[in-house]
Structure formats: C-alpha cells, structure tokens
Here is the input.
Amino acid sequence: MSQEWMIDVLTDLKKFAQANGLMGLAEQLDDSILVAAAELKLNEPEPVRGRGHANQNSGVHRTLAAGDNI
Here is the structure.
C-alpha cells in the first residue's frame, strides 16, 4: 500500500485526541482509519502473477474488462 502514510497520520491524530480527552474525535478518527484502509485496499494495483494458466486467465479478464476485445 503506497498510501500508508495516510493511515499513519490518522493514527497520530487519534492518539493526540485520546491523550487530550477528545474522545468523540478519537472515535471518529478510528472510523476514518477503517474507511481509509478499506478504500486504499480497493485501489491497490493487482499483484503481478507468475507464468501459467492463472496468468493467462487474468489477462483475458483484464482485456474483456477494458473493452479491448472489440
């Protein structure tokens, strides 16, 4: 995840909020951390796979999804 710094910043803000008695803000930041992690995971590029049958299938799926079959 190349954007992990966002999670780190939100975590630091949450710790600051907790240390200063801002519990509502800390809870909101905790929710924000979960949303950020989920969205970053969804936007991760697909891992590069080795040669073989599985790799050929994924290439077909990517081609069909991109509309390159027309």
Remarks:
- Residues 4-66 form one domain.
- The chain is about 70% helix and 0% strand.
